[in-house]
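Running this now, will post back.
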Amino acid sequence: MAHLDPVALGVFIALFLFVTVLGFFASRWRRGDLSQLSEWGLGGRRFGSVVTWFLLGGDLYTAYTFVAVPALMFGAGAVGFFAVPYAAVGYVFMFLACPRMWSVARAKGYVTGADFVRGRFGSRSLALAVALTGIVATMPYIALQLVGMEVVLAGLGIHGEWPLVIAFVILAAYTYASGLRAPAMIAVVKDLLIYATVIAAVIIIPAELGGFGKIFAAVAPGKVTLPTDAFVNPGAFSYATLALGSAMALFLYPHAATGVMSSSSRHAVKRNAVALPAYSIVLGLVALLGTMALAAGVKAMPQYADGFARFGNNYAVPALFLQMFPGWFVGLAFAAIAIGALVPAAIMSIACANLFTRNIYREFFKPDCTPAHESQVAKIVSLFVKAGALVFVLEGQATTAVELQLLGGIWIIQTLPSVFLGLYTRWLHPRALLIGWMAGILAGTAMAAASGFKASVYVLHLGAFDLPCYAALSSLILNLAVSVALSAVLNAMPGTRSDATLAEDYAA
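Update: finished.
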């Protein structure tokens, strides 16, 4: 097992304590009335372009990203690089949809995407479906942040349940006290640490290993490149659909929507849609760490034969850093990953709390609740969300969390017709959207079940071709087909529909 390195541990603890103090201090930053949900859960909608850039970067590029993307490259090869085009293409959808979402949310006081669906289509049932999908799809994501933290703690030689419990008690406390302001402030530190770690790693490690030429030469040819003909080599088709489907789903997640709605202006959202692809460059470099780990032969390290095998390929990056860097840098890098777990976990728990409070509790149980009561309920729910994720991981359900996260991507994309298309048209009928959502959920889940929930790619049989396609994209096509067909029928029937939004609400 890894031994305790006092220097690495000291640096790690010092940085962790620093961001803890920062989290509690954040309640005084851009001070607002935290008894209002828009202040606690959206930071008062006052984050400018720079803070939004750090917040969304900290939200979307998580600890598990830092661990799992290179782990996929380490285990499966070039297919793991799908995360880079998916992240880049995702900002196209951000540019098209999120400025309109920000405008209508600001005009109508919406706090969640389900708020928008409720106002746009006048359907409580459809808004409930969107809210529940968002909560269920996000919960495994929070658990995976714990998995990422557990891996780096093990690399430091810290084992047992108590470190995770302490970390998430601290997280729960400053999230409760400061709301979205805490992860927004901490995200600045987290991102600076990540950038420093990655830049140092991609300079020093290749120099130590003899250059990128030797790194790639040490990897099996089949793991370095992808097949180019999708019909002769269907793996390329699954790669493309996985990247596209993931990109379409990215800004449907509640935590991404929360980051967007917290911006101070529509222009801040647009600027970030242009600037955030800079993170994709870092993501590409992070992915290459998996290839470097292969070239460095980290599987031959004693740790893999002495207790760390349970982490599988997820231990590749920590093992690489332990092998290549001195203790102080290991402490800094591991702190960056651990803090990278706290930031998204905080935002995700806040987003889930906003959805539950606004679209379930207030809508169905206490319509007359005061703004202060609404905010208090959200704070309490955020604690339960984090506690649930913690218990899930402590019970040894990390593998299940991965499987549920794969399902989450399939489920969350089914809200695209209601949310993203709803920003441009109300022609789609709410009952048709609800039935389409149900069809997509059932079909996507069945496709994932066909692999025992171990993979999210399902083989489509199209004539002479067998094409493996991302189940989220296949099921979304079914969802859209059902929604469009039923809307044509239902719109032809007599009846009235309400829309609480106006055309000017979507404008600049």
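The first strand starts at residue 457 and ends at 462. More later if anyone needs it.
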